Please model this.
Amino acid sequence: MCLAIFKPAGKRIAKNSLRSGFYGNNSGSGFAYVADGKLVVVKGLMSFKEFYEKYHAIELNHAMMVHFRAATHGPVNDANCHPFTMCDGQFAMVHNGIFRIPMSNKALSDTGNYCEQVLEPAIKDGTYKDVAKMQTNDVWGWGAYILMSAAGEVIIYNDKMGGYDDDVWYSNQGYKYGSAFSRSDKSYLDLMDEMERPKARQPYFYGCNED
Model:
């Protein structure tokens, strides 16, 4: 199902909540934030240890969007990890759901194709700000997504699908199962956290509209 998260600057997310998102969505992870007027995107993180070391180092200093992928369309690889960038790196997005969109670019997921075919053109012509229209287009399918710009603008489309917990928005409750990890042996967790998710594999199922 994926898990998309937006957290304000100054907020921490419990490590086991992040573990819950990562292990529940094992097709790769990434995050984005704005620093010095530039949008910084870090993605293709296939072990929890790698993700957490990079994320935790800057977590408190920035508003961030975070994503844990559960692949449905497109190969499992670095390119299909979220966030996806657009407009020469001026915008990025993370998505939880499925877009019912023609898979014109077979190398990309449904989200990657949505960014190429719908969202980037909408950003360029300004219609991306019409949230209601963006949520009712023919390819919406179901889900929610977060859009962030280098200027610090953040829009959550269909935010009602998820909810807030301590001012952090989560697209679903996949972060809530962290208590299971608190009962785990530390050496076992260390071993799990260092293990890389396999890349270059196909997702578990394919939706319609692939041709």
